[in-house]
Amino acid sequence: VLRAAREDGLDAVETGEAPTSRIYDPVHVLKGLPGRMRILRAMPRETIVHTNDLNALQAWGPAARMLGLAVVHHDRGLGRV
């Protein structure tokens, strides 16, 4: 996704976060919040945070919204376990 976004002329950032399980983990969300907010604060105000799975939305959505950034989400795997 990162490569495709860059090829299309979009600014995209590799977060370095490891994949997480499909189970909501509030500890993961809270522990990563300062780092996520630091990354997002460095982005322009018109940044749109795009997530494509529920784990990323749960992790990055609160940080983005706390900073007043737009969030777009789609998940093609909602039926998976």
Account of the protein in words:
The chain has a two-stranded parallel ribbon. Strand 1 (48-51), helix 3 and strand 2 (70-73) form a beta-alpha-beta unit. The two termini are 22 Å apart. The longest helix has 16 residues, at 26-41. The model has no long low-confidence stretch (mean pLDDT 84). Helix 2 (26-41) packs across helix 3. Helices cover 43% and strands 10% of the residues. The chain is built from three helices and two strands, in the order ααβαβ. It has helices at 2-7, 26-41, 54-66; strands at residues 48-51, 70-73. It is globular, with a radius of gyration of 13 Å. It has 81 residues and is mostly helical.
Kindly state the number of beta strands.
Answer: 2
Beta-strand proportion: 5-15%
Low-confidence stretches: none
- Strand arrangement within the widest β-sheet reads 1-2
Helix and strand pattern: HHEHE
Helix tally?
Answer: 3
In helices, the fraction of residues equals 40-55%
| CA-based gyration radius | 13 Å
Kindly state the mean pLDDT as a whole number?
84
Structural class: mainly alpha
> What is the overall shape?
globular
Q: Give the termini distance in whole angstroms.
A: 22 Å
SSE arrangement:
Blueprint: H1 2-7, H2 26-41, E1 48-51, H3 54-66, E2 70-73
Parallel strand pairs: 1-2
Helix pairs in contact: 2-3
Overview in brief:
This protein has 81 residues and is mostly helical.
